[in-house]
Design goal:
By secondary structure, this protein is an alpha+beta fold. The chain has a single domain, classed as Aminopeptidase (3-Layer(aba) Sandwich). Helix content is 31%, strand content 31%. It has six helices and eight strands. It has an eight-stranded mixed β-sheet with strand order 1-2-3-4-5-6-8-7, with helices on both faces. β1 and β2 form a beta hairpin. α1 packs across α3. The longest helix has 16 residues. The mean pLDDT is 91.
Length: 182
Amino acid sequence: MIFYTDRLLLRPWREEDAEDLFTYASDPAVGPPAGWPPHESVEHSREIIRTVLSAPETYAVCRREDGRAIGSIGLHRNDIAEDEDEYELGYWIGRPFWGQGLIPEAARELLRHAFADLGMARIWCGHYDGNVKSRRVMEKLGFAYHHTTEGLEVSLLGEIRTGHVLLLTREAWDAAHFGLTE
């Protein structure tokens, strides 16, 4: 599946994206705040495309003008989103594209897909303490604070962190986008 926004194209990851992925995912300012280590090589990025980014409902965030991957966004099931009618939204974008509103733009389209096409009732989103940029994205999208968990093991980095979880319900999405009341 491919989605279009004003400035972006969201499409499945391809192995040919490995160099672009490495360019942005090797930056230590990108992965560690989200809980994963910087990529070490183009081959490492290629392996991540094959094993992680090939998951269903995971998309390369690409600029419409050239189709090059600059970030990632996806809907996932995990320990936060366990039920059939819910997903967790995850995202990141390369540092040169920070502050341009691109991830909120991509996320709005993916949330539309989750609620309208997939029939989801709840979308969860989480961030670790200190990841202010990620929290701002969630707030712009209408997510509301749900809970905080201390002592979370971030196994890929060998750290213990505090995590914050926010929730967006279908009712809240409908109210914000269609003027419907709960």
